[in-house]
Amino acid sequence: xxxxxxxxxxxxxxxxxxxxxxxxxxxxxxxxxxxxxxxxxxxxxxxxxxxxxxxxxxxxxxxxxxxxxxxxxxx
Length: 75
Known about the structure:
Layout: H1 3-14, H2 16-38, H3 43-73
Helix pairs in contact: 1-3, 2-3
């Protein structure tokens, strides 16, 4: 296999993590909304935790993007 082709395949596989991070954020806020509609009094206490979870999921997506960019332009 050509090393350039392997680099593009690796970057494509690494970029899958960005889509999975978007699914994770949607899952976090969808479940938060479902829980907040069931128990509105507990929604204020869980709102900060939802943002922390979203930030961690987005951080992993940004890390996957960074790995894909590094594979394309540096290696």
